[in-house]
Amino acid sequence: MKEADGITVLDTGSEDGTAERLRQAGAEVWEERILPWRFDAARNRSLALVPKDADICVCTDLDEIFRPGWRKAAEAAWRGGVTQLRYRYIWSFMPDGREDRVFLSDKIHGRNGFRWVGAVHEVLRPSAAVSAVADGIVLEHHPDPQKSRGQYLPLLEQAVEEDPQNDRNLHYLGREYLFCGRYEDAIRTLTRHLSLKTALWRDERCASMRYLAVCCRQLGDPEGQEGWLLRAAAEAPWLREPWTELAEHLAEQKNWHGVCYAAGKALRIRERPLHYISEGRVWGSLPYDLLSLGLYYTGSYRKAEEALREALRLSPDDERLKANERLIRDRISSQNDRLRDSDCEGAEAEV
Questions:
Q1: What is the pLDDT of residues 166-193, one digit of tens each?
Q2: Tens digits of per-residue pLDDT, 264-307?
Q3: CB–CB of 156/179 below 8 Å?
Q4: pLDDT at 351 over 50
Q5: What is the pTM of this model?
Q6: d(CA 85, CA 83)
Q7: Are strands 8-11 and 28-31 parallel, antiparallel or unpaired?
Q8: CB 178 within 8 A of CB 211
Q9: Closest to 152 (Cα-Cα) out of 173, 178, 123
């Protein structure tokens, strides 16, 4: 944040010297308790502490890092009455360092006319806003994997109780039940999300169906799992996620022709959407890997080799993929030997 003119921090209860270290680094720090705790109340109080003459407010958390040059990019985009900026947010990374979930965030905004809404997964609510995408701004999220998610579930339950028709929060609550292993509660909540008249975003509806498939799998219901995956693919056929997950399920069922079809459908989708539902794994080697398996077990060894070659291009250090490549090459070599032997036998018969 050092490119900013000033840094304002509201510390809501840290006990590890964070406030002191921030003051030493030049930030203005206030320490207050927010009781009862909710994220929108904390963020609104934090915003109230920002100087009134600020032009652009940039909201980040301490586990987020801007890539250098963000200020110049923000100033370049802040023209023509713009009051809010959207920018590239890398929410998570793959184990090998590649980007995983990437979407546009919008927490750069004008000083006045904005307030935060929502006990958790809070959003900026403008009185009126002119939004623009700021090219060149990239914010990276580096969360602590040991951090507890314990506060999210009760706050989400509270948010849904406060606004039962909020389809976004209902989707998040169902997902949180899934993360917590409460599969029956997740099924009840996610099916309720799908029943709401306001739940119109098909990409998110597709995600709820995919989560329902996971619940069925965990509960030992492969038929229910397959049914929800088929519905998910029909709901948003332009997304790779449902097709790839359907291919994974069919591979477990050893339905290799089905694997070829689903993985092929995934790979025909070339444009990755920039929203939080998009997962990096389906844009890596996984769909090619699944297609290779399907082709191999249906006897298309050369095409299986081609698909595996693409998988290795994206995951060159994957030992399992390397072993599969050797296996496929051996099978092709054996097949060629049999064809040569067959040709020789035919020639002898003709003689």
A1: 999 999 999 999 999 999 999 999 999 9
A2: 999 999 999 999 999 999 999 999 999 999 999 999 999 999 99
A3: no
A4: no
A5: 0.89
A6: 7
A7: parallel
A8: yes
A9: 173
Domains of the chain (ranges, CATH numbers): 8-141 (no CATH), 155-237 (1.25.40.10), 254-351 (1.25.40.10)
Quick one: tokens of 341? Answer: 């032997």
The token pair at 23 is 């003051």
Residue 239 structure tokens: 């997304």
The CA distance from 174 to 169, in Å, is: 9
When pLDDT is averaged across residues 63-79 and rounded to a whole number, the result is: 96
Percent of the chain with pLDDT over 70: 95
